[in-house]
Write a structure and sequence with these properties.
Layout: E1 3-7, E2 10-13, E3 18-25, E4 32-37, E5 44-49, E6 56-58, E7 66-71, E8 76-81, E9 90-96, E10 113-114, E11 118-123
Parallel strand pairs: 2-11
Antiparallel strand pairs: 1-3, 3-8, 4-5, 4-9, 5-6, 7-8, 9-10, 9-11
Length: 124
């Protein structure tokens, strides 16, 4: 059984920064990603990273502000979020898949493991 545990969310003023962490356990994960869901909205893609960390994808709304990275020795993926905006407020989820080694996914249906989420609130 695989397990993902997010941390690092919180309340921050607009323009501030946060770093989210997701610790994976129970199995070897390849593709990993971050999604977010605001109240009344569908869960949306934020960023994704390949197993080696050499390939990354970002949603247009966060490109240039967010950076996804991973430390495979620590089984951890990170999301560094800078220049945060009120519209970034959401519950942020870590997602992972263990099927294809060099895959990178941006569609939520491609991920089979999900964390419980960590809340990010950006005040104006």
């Amino acid at each position: 059984q695989g397990h993902l545990a997010e941390s690092g969310g919180g309340l921050v003023q607009a323009g501030g920064s946060l770093r989210l962490s997701c610790i994976a356990s129970g199995r070897t994960f390849y593709a990993m990603g971050w999604f977010r869901q605001a109240p009344g909205r569908e869960r949306e893609f934020v960023a994704a990273i390949s197993a080696s960390g050499g390939t990354t994808y970002y949603a247009d709304s966060v490109k240039g502000r967010f950076t996804i990275s991973r430390d495979n020795a620590k089984n951890t993926v990170y999301l560094q979020m800078n220049v945060l905006k009120p519209e970034d407020t959401a519950l942020y989820y870590c997602a992972a898949d263990d099927s294809i080694h060099n895959a990178v996914y941006y569609h939520r249906n491609d991920y089979h493991y999900w964390g419980q989420g960590t809340q990010v609130t950006v005040s104006s």
